[in-house]
Amino acid sequence: MKLRTRGEVVFEYVNYFLLLLAILVCLIPVLNIVAKSFSDESSVVAGDVGIWPIHFTTEAYHYVLSSPKFLSSFSISVLVTVIGTLINVTLTVFTGYALSRRRLKGQKVIMMLFVFTMIFQAGILPTYLIVKQLGLLNSIWSLILPGLVSPFNMIIVRLYFCNIPDSLEESGKMDGAGNLRILFHIMIPLAMPVIATTALFCAVEYWNSYFDALMYISKQNLLPLQVYLREVIFSTSDANNNVEMVAQMQIAQESIRGAVVVAATLPIVLVYPFLQRYFVKGIVLGAVKG
């Protein structure tokens, strides 16, 4: 057993302390929001709520979850996230696999074009004009199509496919398998870690996106959950439009905001544990080879 020096021991404990401090800095505001969402009006208004609820109540969640606008926004976000993630991951896998094959003509040129879009972007106004000309305004497709393929995710997937030995593809061809069969029966099962990682990236991006909706959506019934959350946090429009109802239920606006934040964050947080075992492996193995 190797004995550690005193300096190494001190360094390790200092690291633990700094990491714990960073965790507390990030976690305490979240706990405070959750605690306010489960506390009664008098405790929240008095500023007595810390990281633990006072006079536990779920009235804020009853109010939020029964709001037609919240339910409509939530369903739009789920629809956009599911459809967008499925299409995005599919196109990313196809593109990454094709660009990982050395026999593809013009491979370097195509890769340079993808990298170029990561550095230089068209801008807000040209993108808006294209979306308008395509007739996608006030459509959920305006929230999906503009960011359909992420160059960053594609490069990660491509590098992962590059790390898969060519002998597997050659053995598949010797057995009479075509390109699609090799992709679906050999490559994709081996690439599940990076595919799951890419799916998580896409899902989080679609779920948290609100700026696209502000630009392309004007119909209230098509606004996603993040726009609704923004309205509640910054303008509390939903609470102000129902002052009598809120007063009757004795719910503080801070509790309503906290309930909306928790309800908007919880779905994507619940997905992460199921993909966690793929996450680190997909990132590390996808970044080994250039």
Automatic annotation (TrEMBL):
InterPro entries: MetI-like, MetI-like_sf
GO-annotated cellular components: plasma membrane
Membrane-related topology note: Multi-pass membrane protein
Compartments reported by the entry: Cell membrane
Matching SUPFAM superfamilies: MetI-like
Highest taxon in the source lineage: Bacteria
Domain ABC transmembrane type-1: 74-272
Key words, A-Z: Cell membrane, Membrane, Transmembrane, Transmembrane helix, Transport
Record-linked Gene3D superfamilies: MetI-like
GO biological process, one term: transmembrane transport
Claim: Cytoplasm is one of the keywords in the record: no
Pfam families: BPD_transp_1
Transmembrane segments: 12-35, 74-97, 109-131, 143-161, 182-207, 255-275
Family: Belongs to the binding-protein-dependent transport system permease family.
Protein name, as recorded: Putative aldouronate transport system permease protein
Organism in which the protein naturally occurs: Paenibacillus methanolicus
